[in-house]
């Protein structure tokens, strides 16, 4: 393994190959050949071996290192020609990655074998080929081997050749490796390893773009152990330079320099050349801080797998670019290559776009972690997988940390691998979650970073405050994004930003692994699927997103593979907008006493010149208005006042405030007033064209001051049925009490849903108690809702009002035993045809009480069909938190208007909770023609209990008495 990039001069062997799928590696290929794409997973196109999803458990019961006899084996074959001008050169076959064991043969003769499904294998085939000749290449890929037990990552199992195959040639005298160290102070050192006939004489030269020639460094001789030995006898040479005025590389400002290294023969002619883009940057750990170029940068990371809904594990350059561009646009500055090295292209892209990378070795022995971590038979594999990754990726400035793998317990192999990588590359820290699992204060050797997964906020802050912390704490996984999730991200970041020792983490994970499946035959739709089979996270009729079990795969772990911040087609989920706002480069604050607003630059190295902004004025009564804004000059980490818009229609007439200077005539209204700075890119960035929205920080200028309920004289009699259920022309189902929601994945896996079912909340029955009518036509309806642990009493008072509205005042009293319900509120159904919702509150994104930092408070409008979020397994979704008022109207603009006593959780969808809960996939749901409306006095936060902490106590729904009221009127 080496860091010399041979792609530019290589001959691609990608394309359609002959293919046979055998039942086992010792079966003989027959005369009949199919075709298969290379790269490609046969599991995505061959019905005899379909994708299989497991998390921890292995798909077969055999203990390591054994595997089943039934062992799908793909035989790939094609002809290739060796260019005649390669005569006298060294010819190399490069296989980017194959899953899992790779056996290479040319013209029937073996040339080598490789393991490690996520690193390349190279075979020197000079002796097996003839320049100008035509040969047959056979690559046999065996699915299961001893190595499968250390590739037990939580993902689909596939088989195939998953990265590109190519040929290249070098001179017999060649650069075997080039190792670059470039610090942010401009110190550059390039170590070259040369192979071939060395006795004919050789030398290396180097050239740095924009700087000039590098000098061959002769100062360090074999006796200088500290600087490392350089031995010409062994083919070693070193170039060095102190580059002045260097622009350091960072995720914010990823400056790259082209470095060319040439290998010369004794006569000075060039035998080999290597070109790479390098970055000057320094990573170090000082105390409990991880520093990049001397800055303690917060790590806003996300875990990424290689995944594509049509091709499985095969991802192209555009796929990888789109992944990283999406991350950048949503405020991520770091990616962990969970749980294996990615295609080198991904690191090129991270270098170019600016993302810090935790580069992880392909080691996860989850199911047999304890047996394997100290089993000497697996020692070489551990050390090789770590060392080969480091050898390949060491020159990428984006890589700031080496990770020894994932979920493999902690054993001697980890210490061995850590020792190797530390010695080989002292310029980067090493991390391994398992090494610091039980004792974060331990100084155990295999992890320089305490990188727990799913630790609670309480635990990590307690550690940071304990006085015992010795290492930076950066969560390798947190905020499990399964279904409707990522509650309390804002709480996390509030602590991380203010607690020394806490430095961020990596959300689990980037993308849902839903494979596009044809419902007609249950097969993967596959690489040849025509466009239009999915869009905006939703599959077209005839398709669905498959998860574990959908291909008849057993055992399986169901929908646990759908835990991404984006849908399988990379459509961002609402949680992405939450993250974007929390990671925003610009923040806004407002001081009501002085009436001044301040802009804060939250970046480490950039000023605000790459951004522009406009004001969005969001008035509860006056609606939205957009006016220009001028961002002040603010240095990184600094703050500066920003002028408020001159056009404020309802400038706060707060006590003691003079009002908008120059506009004393403006009327004060009773509604709220919010000001949002809509920040966009001023010009093209490598990851966002000019005009891309970056963040929408908001401040409240005025609270609602109008009286509640709005004063109104009697408007006549209210109509109810004999049981006290409201009869209203705009409603097809009257408001009744709701205590339940279609369980989210967090509710199910965290246990809340089972409790709710035991209590009977999913099948509440209303028992009318009394209906009374007063002299003015006001109706008071009292009902009881029995549950397994006590009865909930619900009272509704309906008052008709002169302005044509109906006031609904509700009280629900929950017994103490109902200490943690999903919601307390009203659920009703509207008349059909009211297809557009407009609301005042945060938006436009879906939000919940513990995930509501991502939206600007303003007036928002959306088709009802678009309010719903199609999480892969149907569940509670589409909620909007902090809604103050909303309308639902039809094409002619008529419909109903609801005003709430206080900001409330509201959802408007086409689905009843029970229907959502009964469905496993979206194609099983039939949307109603009307809307199901929930108005909640209280709604349980989302939490992350599918893997990690449950909803935090402040976001739980307490027992006792809840009161809420609202008005509804026709519009
Ligand atoms: C972690 C693991 C990940 C994934 C996640 C749950 O324990 O490292 O690979 O399984 O949990 O989705
Ligand atoms: Mg695992």
Structural class: mainly beta
Would you identify the regions where 5 or more consecutive residues have pLDDT less than 50? 219-227, 651-668
The largest sheet is:
12 strands, antiparallel
Fraction of residues in helix: 10-25%
What would you call the quaternary organization? single chain
Instruction: Let me know the average pLDDT.
Output: 94
Family: Belongs to the glycosyl hydrolase 2 family.
Keywords: Glycosidase, Hydrolase
InterPro entries: B-gal_small/dom_5, Bact_Beta-galactosidase, Beta-gal/glucu_dom_sf, Gal_mutarotase_sf_dom, Galactose-bd-like_sf, GH, GH-type_carb-bd, Glyco_hydro_2
Enzyme class: hydrolase
Feature tags:
971 residues; mainly beta; Jelly Rolls; Immunoglobulin-like; TIM Barrel; 12-stranded antiparallel sheet; 7-stranded antiparallel sheet; globular; binds beta-D-galactopyranose; binds magnesium ion; Glyco_hydro_2_CS; hydrolase; EC 3.2.1.23
